[in-house]
Amino acid sequence: MAIGYEDIVKAPKALLHDHLDGGLRPATIVELAAAVDHPLPSNDPDELGRWFVAAANSGSLERYLETFAHTVAVMQTADALRRVAAECAWDLAVDGVVYAEVRFAPEQHLDRGLTLDEVVEAVLAGFAEGTGRAADAGRSIRIGTLLTAMRHAARSQEIAELSVRHRDRGVVGFDIAGAEAGFPPTRHLDAFEYLQRENFHFTIHAGEAFGLPSIWQAIQWCGADRLGHGVRIVDDITAGDKPVLGRLAAYVRDKRIPLELCPSSNVQTGAASSIAEHPIGLLRDLRFRVTVNTDNRLMSGTSMSREMALLVEAFGYGWAELQWFTVNAMKSAFIPFDERLAIIDEVIKPAYAKLRS
Ligand SMILES: O=c1[nH]cnc2c1ncn2[C@H]1C[C@H](O)[C@@H](CO)O1
Ligand SMILES: [Zn+2]
């Protein structure tokens, strides 16, 4: 039986890779931009939403990233950051996401005088507000925050220390993002070594716009717990009736290193030519630790439910596969093991059992 979209929305979902500054509501951008006189490509929310998707459909990660100038520009005050975070929590909850790790780069939100700590505090307050409101409405969601350092900049050590400073207040991990080619993860080795000494968790955007060397560095030099995208690991797999894994692909699979795959985003930046041809099909068949993610809901005009629905349509997946992606994500989350298990056993498994029956 084909799975209906409304049922996918109802099914509990876990999301590990979602950017706060890539998920604003267009109407919120229009309002916030008016308050700070930031010129937008359109002041009509519907048109603006379409502009983001079209502009991000560039086939290049560098041009895709240019669209963030408009979201980052309106996220420069504590009030704006709190509002955007609260709306993010609510929007994810309404979409049936029960656990999300949402990331952003604090260093990009200092233009109007906030300190790094104030930026983080505002976002954490917004998540608390949004999750509280969602819980009151009967939609429980847990949000963990990841702090990102921009890989072209030189603040990763500072952002790593900021992450550790806020670890008991909702920050559960660290990441690096931005243009990948020319900015290898080893540029930030000091930060990763510091985080390892602190027993902290981190993921690295790698294997999206650049291939195997980036993935290899992220894992073998930097010690990443997960791969942000990591989709280019297929370059180390020889396809055929019996696919053959190279050393790196075998290592990633053997060690159960989670892949934060983002199907729509990859099609937009040219990392995959279509959803149907996205390597997620092969990687799932080979039982890599695959997870499904949104990356940037605004730039892709998407949601967790939509990403799942696209996969159902392209690969004929049923509830068994959707549950597998969801449990994979929950197993790979950066919150403590007992809390992950509680969500899997008490929320995810009972809901899918019902949907499957
Ligand atoms: O998919 C991505 N790859 C690399 N960098 C990205 C991606 N999506 C968003 N970013 C960047 C742009 C944002 O401003 C920054 C922090 O969220 O992370
Ligand atoms: Zn990303």
UniProtKB/TrEMBL annotation:
This is Adenosine deaminase. One of its GO terms (molecular function) is hydrolase activity. Belongs to the metallo-dependent hydrolases superfamily. Adenosine and AMP deaminases family. Adenosine deaminase subfamily. Catalyzes the hydrolytic deamination of adenosine and 2-deoxyadenosine. It catalyses: 2'-deoxyadenosine + H2O + H(+) = 2'-deoxyinosine + NH4(+); adenosine + H2O + H(+) = inosine + NH4(+). It comes from Micromonospora zhanjiangensis. Zn(2+) binds at H17, H19, H205, D295. Binds 1 zinc ion per subunit. PANTHER family: ADENOSINE DEAMINASE. It is an enzyme of class 3 (hydrolase). The active site is at E208 (proton donor).
